Amino acid sequence: MGFANAYSNSNCQILIFWDEAVDCRVVEESEQKVTCSFNWMGTNILITFVYVKCIADFRKDLWENVKNISDRYSLSQYIAGDFDCIVDPVEKQGGSPHRMSKSLSFLQCIMDCDLIDPGYSGSTFTWCNGWQVDKRVWKRLDRILVNMSEPVERAWNVEVQGSPMWRFHLKLKNTCKKLSEWSRSSIGNIFEKVIKMEEKVRELEEKIINDNTDMNRGELNHANSLLIRAYKKEESFWKQKSGVKWFVQGEVNSRFFHSIIKGRKKRLSLKKIRGNDGNWIEGEEEIAKESVFYFQK
């Protein structure tokens, strides 16, 4: 392949190649990741290459390890590879709707490590099951994530003139501006998204009551997954806003967890049923009477 150096992790699932001009030092490795420190032309960065296992329980150690790496090193951090997990329902096409509960631990790791997805070029999807057209599934499993310290460092290092205090003021202003621009373009208004998705879910719930088809159920599942993700972002915002990084288990009182409980209650409750005459029956007492009448026939 023309590279001067190569490295493989213990189970040969991750292969790394680099040129002579690059100084690479392997910091640590496991069956799911290899973390390397790279020095090129005076620039030091930390890159973690991952090949995540398919079984969800095996990923927990990896996410925890990524958090530890983020805490231990002050270098600009990149994480790249096959995460075997999507972060948004739109990153899957075909098959059954994606349940965002499968992605929550990965999303939590991304937020805890202040990682961002800088985007990509080319195809949206990086994996396909290769099945026939009507059973084909596409997903975006491969990505690169960058620690927020990288864009912050670039914004802060912009040359400015003036007294030390004035330079500090300009650097701080420029950094805040860049972060605001990134937030608007990458995240948007998280509170508006929550309101819109709540309304969307309500509309689809009403729709499925009147027309309980597979397509409508799929749309509702998709909307619910987007709503859960919106709640998760809102929860993260309030954590950062309050200055509290960790919440003690059992003390979290966010809309995200309320939504989970509320969703369970909704699934276990009946708002209305259709009677034998085709008319809708509402109210707990009337529903109970109709149910007794139906089973006594």
From TrEMBL:
Q: Which UniProt keywords apply?
A: Coiled coil
Q: Which domain of life is it from?
A: Eukaryota
Q: Is Coiled coil one of the keywords UniProt gives this record?
A: yes
Q: Which residues form a coiled coil?
A: 187-214
Q: Which InterPro entries match?
A: Endo/exonu/phosph_ase_sf
Q: What is this protein called?
A: Uncharacterized protein LOC107761696
State the organism named in the record.
Answer: Nicotiana tabacum (Common tobacco)
Write the lineage as a comma-separated list: Eukaryota, Viridiplantae, Streptophyta, Embryophyta, Tracheophyta
